[in-house]
Amino acid sequence: MAVNNIVKRIQNIMRQDAGVNGDAQRIEQMTWMFFLKVYDTQEETWEYKAQREHTTYKSIIPEELRWRNWAVDEKDGKALTGDELLLLINNQLFPSLKSIEVTREMPRSKSIVKDVFEDINQYMKNGTLLRQVINIINEIEFDDAQDRHLFGDIYEGILKDLQSAGNAGEFYTPRALTDFIVTMLHPQLGETFGDFTSGTGGFLTSALKYLSSQIKTVEDGEKYQSSVIGQEWKPLPYLLSITNLLIHDIDAPDIHHCDSLGTKVSDFKPEDKVDVIGMNPPYGGSTDASAKSNFPMEMRSSETADLFMVLIMYRLKAHGRAGVIVPDGFLFGIDGAKIAIKTKMLKEFNLHTIVRLPGSIFSPYTSIATNILFFDNEKAKGASEGYATNETWFYRLDMPEGYKHFSKTRPMKIEHCASLKKWWTNRVEIISEDGDEKSKKFTAQQLIDLDCNFDLCKFPKDEEEVLPPAELLADYFKKRAALDHEIDKTLSEIQKILGISIDINNKD
Questions:
Q1: pLDDT tens digits, residue range 114-165?
Q2: pLDDT over 60 at 247, yes or no
Q3: What is the pTM of this model?
Q4: Fewer CB within 10 Å, N side or C side of the chain?
């Protein structure tokens, strides 16, 4: 069955409904139905398992409100449609699922239903059009291996539309990039892989794909079920991530709808920490005073990306590994909080690799330049006294041959990381043909002496993307602040040499 155009078919129907306005509402409407359909398929598996074990499975959803009992059209003229369908959904289904009582004893596989529907809305006003949408969704059989695989295409379509809907500066990470980062982190069954801004579950599903090939026994399968942990604050990505993990055979997705920055970092216990972290934290945003107060005074930044870097360091187990995407501003930033965060990384963690990424990785949604920081929670062999980092390698990942930039129609592919993978196991310093540094290593002390300026092995100027005005200004002010800092530092050193004292902050 061809299901690649299912999203477009559904959207074309929804555009005729007066209650749905814009892509964001269409996606929300679509995804709660996908969730119920997927959940119902998962319940069939749980029922079969209970039958084999001579036990009884009881759904958290009232019997008459389970997808199979109201959404399936048997073509016998009895399927609900029109006003009857709207009444069932608006007056029974949504109120019932939103009011489920969750207890501590309730398994996660059941409590997620309440979590999912807590902040989700039903927008459609035309019950006939709603029936048409439901019938299209029922074309997919999620217990069929081929359809489950093809759902990935539908899912990617939803993500592209979600990006186009302009959701608060969130840029969903290309699958090629999450797959590459996970491969370099090399998670193993028995370890926990965490993403505390899990969005729609991209990093988590890449980790599951990597771990699935390691399953050889029943015990391995049990480890797989509890191998990933996520947190997501926004309702729609949270709903998508739950559905995504159900599709990947996780019976009880351990993803929580919460603000990851809302807990004091000093309160984290050993059980709150994970072995491996892969993340693309939101950046460009700011946080309120209450969130900043959860972090040590010297690291209280107003930028979310900075606070997430601190959070990651506090939630990574001893000997754990992390791969985190950060904007350029984190690398060259010289404000007190950024310097404190980067100093902590060098002194307490092994920051072994920084990959400079092409500016159009997230094109066309943003042209903000990004990087990957890879670090371990352990002291590197040969590290100097007072440092956990011995040397940090920088590598510039250039655009593949024949590409001027990435785009919707020409996105990044995993094969574009081939040269980086080859270099990873045989690290050498590289100078490009034009004389620019493509790869170079620095000791921890050298980076400290540079005031923790990690803006090294940069892209040549003529290859930089032209940023939108707001991003261009923000980038300019950050770079000007970094340059002012360097000038002030140089002037201060000259004053010391000459034995004179001038207040460089006095502009009169």
A1: 988 988 899 999 999 999 999 999 988 776 655 555 565 566 666 666 555 4
A2: yes
A3: 0.83
A4: C
- And the tokens for 260? 């990851």
Task: Check if the beta carbon of residue 416 is closer than 8 Å to that of residue 388.
Answer: no
Distance CA 174, CA 178 (A): 7
The encoded tokens of residue 329 equal 């501003």
**Partners of 256 in the β-ladder:** 231
DSSP 382: T
Joined tokens for residue 341:
């965060």
The tokens describing 33, both together, are 């139905």
SS3 10: helix
Look at residues 151, 157, 205 and name the one whose alpha carbon lies nearest to residue 37: 151
DSSP letter (8 states) at residue 327: E
In DSSP terms, which residues pair with 439 in a beta bridge? 395, 430
The upper half-sphere exposure of residue 15, i.e. CA atoms within 13 Å in the direction of its Cβ, equals 7
Estimate the crossing angle of helix 235-247 against helix 145-164, to 10 degrees.
160
Cross-sheet strand order for the sheet of 274-279: 255-257, 228-232, 193-195, 274-279, 316-327, 370-376, 350-356, 391-396, 437-443, 430-431
What is the chain's length? 508
- Measuring CA to CA, which residue among 174, 162, 156 is closest to residue 362? 174
At 18, list the tokens. Answer: 């007066």
Does the pLDDT value for residue 465 go beyond 70? no
Q: Give 58: exposed, middle or buried? Use CB within 10 Å, 0-12, 13-18, 19+.
A: exposed
Contacts 24+ apart (CB under 8 A), 459-465: 459/356, 459/358, 459/359, 459/369, 459/396, 459/398, 460/432, 460/434, 460/436, 463/399, 464/359, 464/369, 465/359, 465/360, 465/363, 465/367, 465/369, 465/405
Would the CA dihedral through 396, 397, 398, 404 be positive or negative?
A: negative
Three-state SS for 501? coil
CA-to-CA distance for 178 and 207, rounded, in angstroms?
9
The amino acid at residue 194 is G
CA–CA separation, 448 and 346 (whole Å): 8
Half-sphere exposure at residue 185, Cβ-oriented, CA atoms within 13 angstroms: 38
